[in-house]
Every structure is written in C-alpha cells, then in structure tokens.
Design a protein that fits this description.
The structure holds two protein chains of two kinds. By secondary structure, chain A is α+β, with helices and mostly antiparallel strands. Chain A has four domains: about 25-115 and about 140-240 and about 520-535, Aldehyde oxidase/xanthine dehydrogenase, molybdopterin binding domain (Aldehyde Oxidoreductase, domain 4), CATH 3.30.365.10; about 125-135 and about 245-275 and about 285-495 and about 540-575, Aldehyde Oxidoreductase, domain 4, CATH 3.30.365; about 620-765, no CATH class; about 780-1020, no CATH class. Helices cover about 30% and strands about 15% of the residues of chain A. In chain A, the strands form nine sheets. Chain A has an eight-stranded mixed β-sheet, sandwiched between helices. In chain A, strands 9-14-15-16 form a four-stranded mixed β-sheet, covered by helices on one side. A three-stranded antiparallel β-sheet of chain A has the order 17-18-19, sandwiched between helices. In chain A, a hairpin with a 4-residue loop joins strand 2 (about 45) and strand 3. In chain A, helix 14 (about 635-650) crosses helix 18 (about 725-735), helix 27 (about 960-965) crosses helix 29 and helix 28 crosses helix 29 (about 1015-1020). Chain B has helices at about 20-30, 85-90, 100-115, 120-130, 140-160; strands at about 1-5, 10-15, 50, 55, 70. Chain B has a five-stranded mixed β-sheet, covered by helices on one side. In chain B, about 50% of the residues are buried. The chains are: A alpha+beta, B alpha+beta. The interface of A and B includes residues 935, 972, 1028 and 1031 of A. Chain B: This is (2Fe-2S)-binding protein. Chain B: One of its GO terms (molecular function) is oxidoreductase activity.
Chain lengths: ~1050, ~160
C-alpha cells in the first residue's frame, strides 16, 4: 500500500503535471496540448461515397468556466477541442453545444449495396448446385488499433511530425499530404510501437491509428502547436462508420459432374484504402473518381490441355487479380480507382481476392458435396501446385469429413479444419515464377464466448522465402481473430471482458515513457524509430494471402456459419452463433418457413418468446438434470464466469457471516419480513446441482425457481435480466464448476400476504421487464459497457434507487435517487447527490477501484464488499462503471482547479471548532481527533479524507454517520482502506447524538442540524455489539 | 492465508486472519512488547509504531494494511547497540512515572523528527496532543522531547561528517 497520504486532496496539485519532453523527443513537444474530437451523430462510408450529418453551429459559451486555454478547431464537419490536459479537453467536448443537421440520404443516389455482403449466412445444404453466387467484403479498418496510446502530431512551421501507431505508413503519409498540402518529404512519421514495424500483417489493412494521427495533425496544424490524441477502443466508432471498403462478387456454374464450367470474379471499389475520417469531415478528401472498368470483362477460354497458366498473366489484367485455377470459361474484372498507387495496395488486393476466391471455392465444394481440396485439384494444371497441395494435405492428415476429437475437448469448444491456397506472381508479375502457398488450419471456437483459437497451422510454400509458421500463427491470431479477444486487454463490446492490462485511458499525460513502449529494447538508444514501408520487411504480407480464407473455411467447418468478411472477432462469432441457434429453434417451430427470409423467422421467434414469457408464471417445474459433465465448459468459459460472478457480487449475498462461499443463509430484513439467501453451490439436494441452464436462466431473467415457485425481488433478477446470454452461460459454467456444499437454508419469515409466492406473478407483470440489455448506439463503447455492468450484473439500482410500497424500484427521475438498505443510506447517484464537493468521473473511479476518494471518503457498510468484488474486475470495467455513473450525475471528467480550491476552502473553514457544543467537542477530541485531525506528524493510520468533505456528514439523513460511530468503518476485504473502531459499547445514545450534532455543525455548517437523533440512534443501535476487533 | 510482514528489518510469514489488529500480531505472535495495549480504540496512542517512518496506531489497524511496509517498533528503534536520540533524551530527562504511555510518546516524537528536524515547542505540543498520560508526567515528557531535538540534531551532524 502506498503511503496513506497518497490521495490527500490538499497536499498535491489538482491536475496531473505534464512531463513532456526529455530525451528522445524534440524540445518543442514540451508544449504539447491535448485534443479530443467530436464526430457527427451520423457519418458513414457507403463503399463509394462518404456521407455525414453537417455542422450547423458550435456554441462555445460554456467553455469559459474551464481552466486554462481551450481551443475549438472547426473545419467543415470536423470538430475538435484542444486543452491543457486530456481531462479538461474531454470536459470541454461535453460542454460544447453543437447543432448538427440531420442527415437525409438522397434517394437518387442510392447505391446497389442493398445486397447483404460480408454477412454471416448459415450453410444451407443444397444437393443440386447448378450455379452459385456469393459476395464477400473487406472492411475499411481492420480494428481500432494495436493498443491504447498517445498519438502526437506537431504541425508547426512548414513541416509535420507525427508519433503514432500505424500498420500502413504509406497510406497514412498520403493522407497527411492531402491534409497539409505539404511535400511528402516534409512529413516525418515516428512509431511509438517499434514492434509493429516488422509485423508481417501490415498488409491486412489499416486501423484507426491512422485516423487518430490525422485528427491530431489537423488540430495541430490549425493551432500551430503539438497536439496529442488518445487512441483507444472509442475509435471503434470509426471502424463501424467506415464499414466496408471492398466488395468481391463471385459466381460459378457447375456441370453435372461438379466441375466449375463458368467462373466470374468481380472486384469493386479496389481503391485500396479509405481515407482517414478527419479528411472526409474536413472536406479535404475528394471522392475517388469512379473509373470505368478498364480491364476486359472476359478472358478467352483457356485451352483445356494447356498446363501453363501463363497466358492469363498477359498485359490484360494486373496480376494480383489473376486466379491460379483454370476454368473453361473465366471472367475476371476489377474496377480499380487508383490501381497500384501504393506499394501496399497491390498486395492487399491480392489478399482480398484470395480470401474471396478461396472462401467461395470452399462454399462451392461443400454445397456440391465435394471435398474442398479435390475440387481445387480438378482445376489446377500447374504440377508444382498440385504436388504442394497433396503434400500439405498428407502432412495435415486431411480427411473428409474432418474427424473431430470430441471426448477430451470441452463441449463448448467447436472444432473445425479449413484449407486455402494461393499462387502469387513474382516481382515481375509472372505467375509461373511466383510462390505457391497452401494452408491447412484447425480452429477451436468457444460457443459461449465466441473466442476463436488457431490450434494448428500447416503451411506449405513452394519457391518462397522461408516461412515462419509460428510467427504467422501469432500474427493471424492477433490480427485477424484478436480484435475482441481478452488476450489483448481490449473491450470493444459491451459484454467483453478484458484482462485489466489495458493502459490507463485517462489521467496519464504524455511522458517519454508513455510514448515508447517500456519494455522494448529497440528504443533504448533512439527512443523513436523511423517507419519504413512495411513491404520492405521480412514478409511482404503476400505470404499471408491464404491466411484469412483458411480461417473462414475452418470456422465454417466448426460452426456451419460462413463469415464473408474479416475480422472474425469473438463478438461477431458469438452473435452469429446465437443467431444460428435462434434460427435453428425457429426452424423447428416453423418448418414451412420461406427459405432466405431470415428476418421473418426472427420476428416470429420474438413473438413466441414473448408468449412464453407471459406463460411462465403458471409454468411448473423444469426437469432436474444431472450436474453438467466436468468437461462441458472450457477453462476460458469458467474464467469468464468468475468475472461475471464478481461483477454481480453473488457471494456478498449468498454467503452468510462466517459461512462458506455461496452456500446462502444470509438474512435480509425487508419491510415485508425476513428473507434468507439460497445455496447456489452445485449441491444436488440443497443447491443448484440439478438445475439445467434453462432453469438457471429463468431464475436470473424471470425470478422463477427451478421448481416453478417465484423468487422475491430481494434477489435482483430485475437487474440480472439484462445480462447477455454469453455471460449467463459463463456464470452457469462457473457456478457448476465450484465444489458442492450441502446446506439447507432457513425458512423465510414473511408476513401474510407476502408469504404467498405466487403473488409475485402479478408483481412481475407490473414491475419486471425481462428484456436483455440493449446498447445505446449514440453512446460510446465505454458508456455502454458501464451501463451494461451497472444496470445489469452490478445491480447498482437495487440499493441506490428508492422502491415503491410494493418493493419495486422506482424509475425515471427516481432512478438511482438514493435509498436505504440494511440500515445504511445508499446515497443518490444522480443529480440529487448531496456531496459537498461534486463527484467527478475520476473520483468515482478512485472510490470504486481503491475504496476511497480523497474528496469524498471511504467505502464502508454494504458498499465495502461491493468494492471488494469490483477489485476482481479489469480496470477498464471499473472505469466504464464510473463513466456511466458520472453520466447519471452529469459529473465532469476530472477535478478541476475550482473544485480543488472549493475543497481546500471547506477544510480551512472546518479547522476551528464551532462554539456552544462543548459536550460534543470533548467527545470528538477524546475519541476522534487522534485520527481525524491534522497534527503535523505524518501518520499512517490517519483518516485520509477530511471530515469536511465527507459525503455522509452532508446528507439529509444521519444514518451512515450513526452507523459509522456505532459500528466503525471496516473494509476488511479492501486492502489499504483504513479501519475505524466502533463506539457502540463505549458511548451512550446521548453521547452519540451529541457527537453527531457536533460533527454536523462543524463539518457541514451549511446544512441544517439533524433532528430526532436519539430515536434514530436507538433504532440503529440494535444489531451492534462491540465491533472492535482489538481485545487484550 | 499467509501474510508477510517486515518488522524491525526482519521478515515474517504469519498465518493470521487479515483483520486482526496489528498490535495483537506484534505483541502475541512476534513477542514485541514495546507497543502497549491501552484503550483499544485508537484514542490514547500507547500502541503506536512507525510504518514507513510514519506514526500508526496499531490497535485499530488491521494487519493486512501493514503488509508491504516497513514496520518499526520501540524494540527496533536502537541501532547497533546505540539508543535512538529520542530514547536517550527520555532517559536523560527521566520522563516516566509508570511508563505505560512512553512507547507512544517516543514513537510520536520520532515520527515528528523524521518529518521536521527543528520543531517548535508549539509543534511538539501538537504532535503529542492526542497521546494520553494518566500519571501527569507531561512537563517531563515535553522537556524530553525538547532534549530529543538537540540530541537528534547532533547525531545527524555526526552522520553527515562521517
């Protein structure tokens, strides 16, 4: 534990100091400022054009109250705010009042993109495939970035320097040239992530590091000062807005024997890269002039006996759209807007084409009942290719169908194997002399979490550079599958779980150590490394070209779902699996459903689910099941479940004082009587060992026990209903994997009529909404993640929202408006907060993460176990909750100078004792002052929050103050939180009242004295015994 | 659950409930009887030790809070057979009646001097304000504290000359 004074508010300056400059960075960066962009409510790249809501006006009047200089950069529809610190910049962005013109699409320019491309379509067996047509897509941005970090641009004078992360430096430089109109030689790029320079995946496409760099450059150029922008998962918004960059449509006609007679390939919008968002918004990007299709639509039929595909690499077509296969009738076309403009784009288009073609051939093979490898061999004439494929297939033990090892593997893992092949032209665009590359990959898909793991990869290469299989595997895992994986500590989806290793997303200002990766030996000398074009590195990226398709094909083999656009993130896979499962269920109910009308089935299912929900209250017992087999769930799923349990803090309520975890028996006093929590260990008689997942889900979402009886809403199923399916499954897996403990729970002591459980049916109809959580598309990922956790698993409102006479939480203005639980006040978490110093997001985070905020006090009472539970969660999740609660309070991001000055003033004012309360003063001096008054001696056990800032002393209700005096403050499970002894046995009721009155008068002089203290103290004194642990 | 404590430069691994008061662990498990059990409510100061050079009242401090910190008790204040200047001063000033409170008095003055080598009389009084003595030895204790400032300064001088 750091020294107790670490967050003492008065001793330190308010905002983090900026330690910019130092070795490795140019001296002018000492004056770096911090920028935040405000994107329009709607912006979208539709494949050919960029469209967005247009800016009408920006009102800056509310920025005047913010500390330091705040600049607003407006250009076209680009809006950015630049301030002295990132916290102020974020506040300013919130305070800015911007009027946007709603976007209306022009109907005459509707594009032919209504076809579903790149979507996940379920495999539908078809035995007579005469012709097959499919569309594949490639995203404009693969992901938001590599890791959270600062992107700095210094656009002073007649040059531009950018420190950032990019995998496509050439494209980024082009964008910067367009932005600044500077000569390319005057623009210098530096990497803050030296590892990525040699990364072979550079060819897979851009990420939002480029967008952040252009954001920073635009603001820096406008202000003539270095500007830093924070790149993190929030940029996923740009990934979504930029959507699909490339569209590949393929068509094949088959003969009766299954041979492909006609083959069409059309590559639309092959512009290579979509410009950075800021370029479009500022109007400095021009829409690419649609070029006519300069390549011939059709290629003459290849002579059937010609084993040399060389004629195809004639001057008709750029070689990277050529196919290594020989079909009787072949039509290849590509509409290239700026063909070959960047060294990267040819490789990238080659990879895109290989992805589409190899996925397509796999689909054709499976739909026509052929082995995917045999189908390819039928259309290859090149002897070297055939030999390579055969040897790779042999090495991998390729057989059809893939025999899946089912026994040893957890049953929530789906296994699959896929094949892909590519032939690449050499440097002189000659196919024959080029590299042949054949891949076989095995994947394991976690059906609960959606995680895809590459379990085996076999790559055969003819005439190419040595292949680093391990490197490729890692690259594919991280770059293609990795975007949403917990592995990387990023959490783009509202129900993704990070590992807590993500960098702090705020409060950390730039210093040399944040600009370069700490542990990288490459930067010890120079601190920055100049970017070279990725293509000059070890791998050109072309070697990867079968890599994307091989995973798509293996994924299909494992799941029966065809992914027609990368990346294959956990979130997408999970959603597709869920959709497929729903469709499967719907298919059972509606056998005559029209093929292909998927939305119809989904709508019908919703109705059925609704009807079932209505029928549930009168439904009976769900059949008992045997406890799930130990290998049903993978370690990964169980670990996810552990995090879900921590977020839901199951153990806090389901563990009695001194009892074993989750065996229940803890008493809850309610206005309706006493309730006891249940045993949720997998004991088959007294616990949930015989509960199926369906029963578990019904309890969590609808408050109905396995035996059909109703649960009381002291169990917050009203909140838990919002939990996502994947999280519920993982929680079930986790609970079932725990050791069973037999323990009968005491019988509830409820007064009539509340003892009649079935009355809860009516209650549920009135007050319970079992709809799962829906993210708000207008809010950030962080907000939605926070909302998901706070409204669902975290069940904040169960304690912090007042309840009506029927025990139901009030909503609307009363949401999080404060309530009473177990004799403690759960203070308001909305705008009704009575805190003497307004809460900020930073303070909320400190409180939730560390159990104390220097400006508000420590977590105690029923909140202490909550903080202990949150300690299990990744930092990102706790930040997300703080962010969400701050939004409910309309609280600022950080604590500005005015706030700190206000706190200081309160502390100074309370330094003197108030007159006329000698009795209370004597008690305070004797019992409290040693820890609560500053004596000039540095102390480890002194309370770190001054009482003048204590939220409880400023509340309308004395309850928490009385509770703290009587029972003390204990947060045993939160390391580092102080401990206060209870005085229930040493103070009389009158003395407690005298003390509370004195505390209120001295430390909250602006609040009215509390009334009827003695009565309240008598009421609350009941359960307290001597709470002091210390005995001689 | 095992807790690791560093007391007077020695490392200990202890199997105690994490919420046990540090005082109980020091006296009962480690047999360090410098800190005394007085009020048990953090009011009198008899149980004080130094944690990371800062004063700490151990009867109300859970042992888990002291993990990863250097703890110094009165027993460990003397270095190489040489009494701490504050201990020396209290002997010279004969500042004890029953002596029960002296552990807290000495530790508080030590913490004060760690932070402020030349405290004024006023600052010494403030530092000792919440340390209780029932024998009424306050005058001698204040004299001892003044003496401690002088001996401490001399000792510091010596160290810097070496």
């Amino acid at each position: 534990m750091p020294p107790r004074s670490r967050r003492y508010p008065m001793s330190k300056g308010s905002l983090p100091t900026q330690e910019v400059g130092g070795e490795g960075l140019p001296p002018q960066l000492t004056h770096v400022r911090y920028g935040v962009v405000v994107r329009p409510p709607y912006y979208h790249w539709n494949g050919e054009r960029f469209e967005s809501a247009h800016l009408i006006s920006v009102d800056r009047t509310r920025l005047a109250s913010l500390p330091g200089q705040v600049d607003v950069v407006v250009e076209g529809d680009f809006v950015g705010v630049v301030a002295e610190s990132i916290a102020v910049a974020r506040d300013a962005a919130k305070q800015l009042h911007i009027e946007w013109q709603a976007f209306c699409s022009e109907p005459n320019k509707t594009l032919k993109h209504s076809e579903r491309a790149g979507g996940e379509l379920r495999y539908q067996a078809s035995h007579s495939v005469a012709s097959e047509q499919r569309i594949y897509g490639w995203p404009s941005r693969m992901r938001w970035g590599n890791h959270p970090g600062w992107i700095v641009a210094d656009g002073s004078d007649h040059q531009l320097k950018v420190w950032g992360q990019t995998t496509t430096p050439v494209a980024l430089k082009q964008d910067l040239v367009r932005l600044t109109a500077l000569d390319a030689s005057r623009i210098e790029l530096y990497s803050t992530d030296p590892q990525q320079i040699s990364n072979p995946a550079a060819g897979l496409g851009r990420h939002c590091g480029d967008d952040a760099a252009v954001d920073a450059a635009l603001m820096s150029q406008a202000l003539g000062r270095p500007v830093a922008v924070w790149l993190d998962a929030r940029y996923i918004q740009d990934v979504e807005a930029l959507g699909q960059a490339q569209r590949m449509s393929l068509k094949a006609e088959l003969t009766d024997s299954g041979e492909i007679a006609r083959y069409h390939y059309r590559h639309a919008n092959s512009s290579g890269d979509v410009a950075a968002v800021a370029l479009w918004l500022s109007g400095r990007a021009t829409e690419p002039a649609a070029m006519p299709e300069t390549v011939p639509e059709s290629i003459p039929e290849a002579p059937a006996d010609d084993s040399d595909p060389a004629p195809l690499s004639s001057s008709f077509l750029p070689s990277y759209v050529l196919s290594p296969y020989v079909f009787r009738d072949q039509h290849l076309s590509a509409r290239l807007q700026q063909p070959g403009q960047t060294p990267n784009s040819a490789t990238l288009i080659g990879i895109q084409q290989a992805f589409a073609r190899e996925s397509f051939l796999d689909e054709v093979a499976r739909d026509s009942g052929q082995d995917p490898i045999s189908l390819r061999l039928r259309h290859l004439k090149d002897a070297r290719s055939i030999k390579l494929i055969e040897s790779v297939a042999k090495r991998a033990g390729w057989q059809v169908p893939f025999k899946k090892p089912s026994d040893a593997v957890p049953q929530d893992l789906l296994q699959g194997r896929g094949f892909a092949f590519a032939q690449l032209p050499d440097r002189h665009q000659r196919m024959e002399a080029g590299v042949r590359s054949a891949w076989i990959a095995d994947v394991a898909v976690n059906r609960v979490t959606g995680d895809v793991q590459l379990t085996r990869l076999i790559v055969g290469q003819d005439d190419g550079p040595e292949v680093d299989t391990a490197g490729l595997q890692q690259t594919l895992q991280e770059r293609i599958l990795g975007e949403a994986r917990p592995l990387l500590g990023q959490a783009p989806g509202f129900d993704e779980w990070g590992d807590g290793s993500d960098a702090p997303e705020r409060g950390v200002e730039i210093s040399p150590s944040t600009l370069v990766k700490r542990d990288s030996p490459a930067v010890t000398q120079t601190k920055t490394v100049s970017l070279r074009p990725a293509s000059s590195d070890v791998l050109t990226g072309a070697e990867l070209s079968p890599g994307v398709a091989v995973i798509a094909n293996a994924l299909f083999d494992a799941t029966g779902i065809r992914f027609r656009q990368p990346p294959f993130t956990a979130k997408r896979v999970r959603e597709a699996l869920k959709e497929a499962a729903m469709e499967g269920a719907a298919q059972q109910r509606f056998a005559k459903r029209a093929p292909g009308r998927r939305w119809l089935a989904a709508a019908a299912l919703t109705t059925v689910a609704g009807a079932t929900a209505m029928a549930w209250p009168w439904k009976s017992t769900l059949a008992p099941v045997a406890r799930p087999a130990p290998n049903l769930y993978s370690a990964e799923t169980i670990e996810r479940g552990r995090l879900v349990a921590a977020a839901g803090d199951c153990a806090a309520c389901h563990t009695s004082e001194g009892g074993s975890t989750n065996v229940g028996g803890r008493a809850f006093e309610t206005p309706f009587g006493t309730l006891y929590s249940t045993n949720i260990t997998p004991d088959e008689v007294t616990g949930i060992g015989q509960w199926s997942f369906a029963a578990f889900e019904r309890a969590m979402r609808h408050g109905i026990s396995r035996d059909g009886s109703h649960l009381y809403p002291a169990f917050p199923y009203t909140a838990f209903a919002k939990t996502s399916d994947a999280d519920l499954q993982a929680l079930y897996a986790y609970l079932m994997a725990q050791p069973p403990v037999a323990a009968e729970k005491p019988t509830n002591e409820l007064s009539f009529p509340f003892s009649v459980r079935s009355l809860m049916a009516g209650w549920n109809a009135l007050y319970h909404d079992p709809t799962p959580f829906q993210p708000d598309p207008m809010q950030s990922e962080l907000y939605n993640r926070g909302a998901y956790l706070a409204e669902g698993l975290g069940h904040c409102s169960a304690c912090h929202s007042p309840r009506n006479a029927m025990g139901a939480e009030k909503s609307g203005d009363a949401y999080l408006a404060g309530a009473f639980v177990d004799g403690w006040e759960a203070p308001p978490l909305n705008t009704l907060s009575r805190a003497p110093i307004p809460w900020s997001e930073t303070s909320l985070f400190d409180y939730l993460r560390h159990g104390e905020s220097a400006l508000h006090g420590v977590a105690s009472g029923p909140m202490a176990p909550v903080v202990a539970g949150l300690a299990e969660l990744p930092e990102y999740d706790v930040r997300a909750i703080a962010h969400y609660v701050a939004a409910q309070m309309q609280a600022p991001t950080g604590n500005d100078e005015a706030t700190m000055a206000g706190a200081e003033q309160r502390v100074t004012k309370a330094a003197e004792s108030s007159p006329g309360m000698e009795a209370g003063e004597r008690l305070f001096e004797g019992a409290c002052a040693a820890c609560h008054v500053e004596t000039g001696v540095p102390s480890f056990s002194r309370a770190s929050t001054n009482l003048a800032l204590n939220t409880n002393l400023h509340s309308d209700h004395p309850d928490n103050v009385i509770q703290s005096i009587l029972g003390g403050v204990h947060a045993d499970h939160v390391p580092g939180i102080g401990s206060m002894p209870g005085f229930a046995d040493s103070f009389s009721t009158t003395q407690v009242a005298d003390l509370a009155t004195y505390l209120r008068a001295r430390f909250a002089p602006d609040k009215a004295p509390w009334q009827q203290l003695e009565k309240r103290i008598t009421d609350l004194r009941q359960p307290h015994h001597n709470n002091t642990n210390s005995t001689p | 659950m095992t807790l690791k404590l560093t007391v007077n430069g020695k490392r200990h691994e202890l199997s105690v409930p994490p919420q046990t008061p540090l005082l109980n662990v020091l006296r009962n498990d480690l047999a360090l009887n410098g800190p005394k059990y007085g009020c048990g409510l953090g009011e009198c100061g008899a149980c004080s030790v130094l944690i990371g050079g800062m004063i700490a009242r151990t009867c109300v401090l859970p042992v888990s809070a002291a993990v990863d910190h250097d703890i110094t008790t009165l027993d460990g204040l003397a270095q190489n057979g040489q009494l701490d200047p504050v201990q020396q001063a209290f002997i010279e000033a004969q500042a004890a009646q029953c002596g029960y409170c002296l552990n807290g008095m000495i530790m508080a003055i030590r913490a004060l001097l760690n932070h402020n080598e030349q405290p004024s009389t006023q600052q010494i009084r403030a530092a000792l304000e919440h340390n209780l003595c029932r024998c009424g030895t306050h005058v001698e204790i204040l004299q001892a504290a003044q003496r401690a400032v002088v001996i401490n300064a001399a000792a510091q001088q010596e160290v810097s000359h070496e």
